[in-house]
Amino acid sequence: MSDADASVGAAPVRATRAPRRDAAANRDALIAAAALLLNRDPAVSLEAIAAEAGLSRRSVYGHFATRDDLVREVSLRGAARIGVAARPAPIADPVVQLASLAARLWAEVEHVRVMAQLTVRGPMAHEVGEALAPLRKAVRDLVRRGVESGRMRDDIAPRTLAHLVEGAALSVLDEATTQRLSRAEGHRLVMLAVLGVVGLDWRSAGELVASSPELALPAAPPTSPPTGTASPTGTPSPTGEPA
Amino acid sequence: MSDADASVGAAPVRATRAPRRDAAANRDALIAAAALLLNRDPAVSLEAIAAEAGLSRRSVYGHFATRDDLVREVSLRGAARIGVAARPAPIADPVVQLASLAARLWAEVEHVRVMAQLTVRGPMAHEVGEALAPLRKAVRDLVRRGVESGRMRDDIAPRTLAHLVEGAALSVLDEATTQRLSRAEGHRLVMLAVLGVVGLDWRSAGELVASSPELALPAAPPTSPPTGTASPTGTPSPTGEPA
DNA sequence: AATAAGTTGCACATGCCTGTGCAAGATCGT
DNA sequence: ACGATCTTGCACAGGCATGTGCAACTTATT
Questions:
Q1: Which of B44, B190, B201, B208 is most worth mutating to test chain A (most A CB atoms within 10 A of its CB)?
Q2: A1: closest CA of chain B, how far (Å)
Q3: Is the Cβ–Cβ distance between A169 and B161 less than 8 Å?
């Protein structure tokens, strides 16, 4: 009934009937709402999340056994998308490639920020941290290659430099949410910030960004059309509290 | 008695006797402990803070009426120290001055980080934010002057650039606590990071730092001698739980 | 329309945290 | 040594959040 049994996975053992489709949509809405609110406050109450998703707190337990389960799901999705973005592009120059990575990360701002928020504290900080491990490794490798090829600064230990790159990128991502950066502005800013930290002077960085076709802003705004009842990715619900 | 009446301020109306000196020391220990733990978790319990200070939770209420009062006190002290550090040095070049500001901020890592933590969330985010206003303004002015004089990049709006500078500095400060950066390393890193964000190429930044006597690492480690029982500024107490 | 799948509201248990009252200490100041 | 000044432990109230059991109710599916 109201217990956690929403197994919307594979192998539907249709004993009597197929599960309702709107349930899955609501589940997605919950995850989206959680992601949105966890961005601002890693300790949001289920009440708030449910309200944002247009559901009642009680219903959440129909989809997730535990609050942590919800959060885990959010972080898993985030990790997946980031993992995709972290796959190295076929670019020779490590500098350009780093900028490219930053730009692709920018396309996933929301997810990246959620992950960053969750990494800081909480019971699953470790798990989430491990989920981001491939990203971190990618940055580290890129920096190492960049330093070896003489295209990046060597006055800071590569390990440390990699951390600073992360930090700079996150700064822009933060800036993106507090101010209202457009896609284009964010795209440019992350790259410039990262390149600056890595040692390039600002004119070279600007020229590089302008002249590298790989670093151009991709076309499609990722606003995917809704699949079910509640909007999954964009603004979840204009209504506020249910009371 | 046990209520909040520890008025250790000025104008001692010594009706019957002078207040005990260890009380003031404990108060300081509490603030120090709070600062230390708030760095890691803005939501630490009073229990934990009291334990860190070597006191019981109950005793805290002998010094502060509410938890928020304690936190407020911590933030006030932090703001004060940062305010001092933010006073512009008598340096003409805005670039050098920005680096100098970053370095002076580095000397106050602990305090800066506490403030940063508190700014993020919590009931007094606004207050704390205002306490940091002078710092922010200093950075903004420096950046504006730097851009106008052509010594800093002009491909990013000064306002935004100022934010990125803040972010980069905080990254180093974070790095400082997770890794164990020495004073010297941190000193150099903040400056290099900030200069990088602001548009300098890494060699110029390095030379600037090396050649500017104003940017040299000051001598004295700020471990001030204890005034009373518990150590006020440095490590508060090596003992753990009181139980 | 019938029925299972989801949802909701309420009540309740639990846990963690803050804040207080009070009595019994420990400790500094004189 | 005396006494005021802290400190402590315990008990208790209140608040907020999670998680659960039920009995309705609404809605998608067949």
A1: B201
A2: 37
A3: no
Residues 62-101 of B, Cβ under 7 A from nucleic strand D: 62-63
Query: Phi first, then psi: what are they for B13, rounded to 5°?
Result: -85, 70
**B231 with B224: CB under 8 angstroms?**
no
pLDDT tier, A102 (very low <50, low <70, confident <90, very high otherwise): very high
Q: Kindly report which amino acid residue has its CA closest to the C1' atom of nucleotide D4.
A: B17
pLDDT tens-place string over residues B40-70: 889 999 999 999 999 999 999 999 999 999 9
Mapped to the 3 state alphabet, what secondary structure does A90-113 carry? CCCCHHHHHHHHHHHHHCCHHHHH
**Does B201 sit within 8 Å of A204, measured CB to CB?**
yes
Alpha carbon of residue B105 to chain centroid: 7
How much is the pLDDT for B15?
A: 54
Asked if B172 and B190 count as a contact pair (C-beta separation under 8 A), the reply is yes
Compute the radius of gyration of chain B from its Cα atoms.
Answer: 20
CA distances from A218 to A104, A195, A234, B3, B155 (A): 9, 20, 19, 63, 21
pTM of the model: 0.82
With beta carbons less than 8 A apart as the criterion, state whether B183 and B217 touch: yes
Is the pLDDT assigned to residue B6 strictly greater than 50? no
- CB–CB of B171 and A175 under 8 A? no
Q: Are B95 and B200 in contact (CB under 8 A)?
A: yes
A158-178 helix and B158-178 helix, angle to the nearest 10 degrees: 130
Contact (Cβ atoms closer than 8 angstroms) between residue A171 and residue A193: yes
Name the CA radius of gyration of chain A, rounded.
20
> How far: A141 CA to C19 C1' (Å)?
52
* Helix/strand/coil for B149: coil
Among the partner-chain residues A163, A175, A201, the one whose CB lies closest to the CB of B175 is: A163
What is the pLDDT averaged over residues A61-87? 94
In total, the C-beta contacts within 8 angstroms joining chain A to chain B are: 89
Mean pLDDT for chain B?
85
Residue type, B77: R
